[in-house]
Specification:
The chain is an alpha/beta fold and 252 residues long. It is built from nine helices and eleven strands.
Length: 252
């Protein structure tokens, strides 16, 4: 059953740890919804965060240390504090489909935060209409992803859903051609004829495109590699794809 309510994870990016939270509070271009501070957090570091939050007009809530760890999703590095940063272009995939962006990326099983962050940065730079980042099976949108994106993750057109398989089904039902990047020997990305609306699947670092998503794929595309290299890193492949769409003038 598909979700009809908007999860907080479809509205905010959560950053945790003292330095990332202070950086978010000090950035005039970001809107922080709230800071949550562990009730065990005391001393100069906690006081500094509270001062920065007051200066930015951001409410500070207290919660148990366990609750902070659960909300951060990273018990080793949260340092007792997190902040929910408003991501103005992030929304559920179901809402985005009403606007029918012409070109969309779908991340399927990409678990390395650096790859997710670099893909968000590249796709945003290329002007794509959306990047589907499922809540399950893909690296969480945490400070590691934000850092890899050089902060672009806050402003990226992220589209949210539960799983890549759910997203693939929704895209196909909405009339998108669903294309996956695969090995050499398939039709070339540079020569393929694409429909008016197309979504492109980027598979995981190890397993590639999942079986559930592969079953819905319209076609497979390859990136020609005349050199003796079997494949590209997924973020590098995403860059080639995105800027081929830029070259065609069809990113949105």
């Amino acid at each position: 059953m598909r979700e009809t309510t908007v999860s907080p994870k479809d509205r905010f990016l959560t950053v945790y740890g003292r330095k990332p939270v202070l950086e978010a509070l000090d950035d005039p271009e970001l809107r922080v919804d709230k800071v949550i501070l562990a009730d065990t957090a005391r001393g100069p570091a906690a006081a500094e965060i509270q001062r920065a939050a007051r200066a930015a007009g951001v409410p500070v809530q207290r919660a148990s240390a366990h609750r902070v760890k659960v909300l951060a999703g990273n018990g080793k590095q949260d340092q007792g504090v997190l902040a929910d940063v408003v991501a103005p272009r992030m929304r559920p995939l179901s809402a985005a489909l009403a606007d029918a962006p012409a070109r969309v990326l779908l991340l399927d099983g990409i678990t390395t935060p650096a790859n997710v962050g670099m893909i968000l940065r590249t796709a945003t730079a290329a002007g794509l209409g959306g990047i589907v980042v499922p809540r399950r099976g893909v690296a969480a949108l945490d400070p590691l992803v934000v850092k890899a994106s050089a902060g672009v993750a806050f402003r990226a057109p992220v589209l949210r859903c539960a799983t890549a398989a759910e997203a693939a089904s929704m895209l196909v039902e909405a009339g998108y051609g669903l294309y996956a990047l695969g090995a050499q020997g398939r039709p070339s990305l540079f020569e393929a004829s694409l429909p008016e609306r197309a979504a492109f699947v980027l598979g995981g670092e190890t397993a590639g495109v999942s079986d559930e998503v592969a079953a819905l794929v319209t076609g497979w595309l390859s990136i020609p590699m005349p050199g003796e290299v079997e494949s590209l890193n997924v973020s590098a492949a995403a860059a080639v794809l995105c800027f081929e769409l830029v070259r065609r003038g069809t990113t949105r």
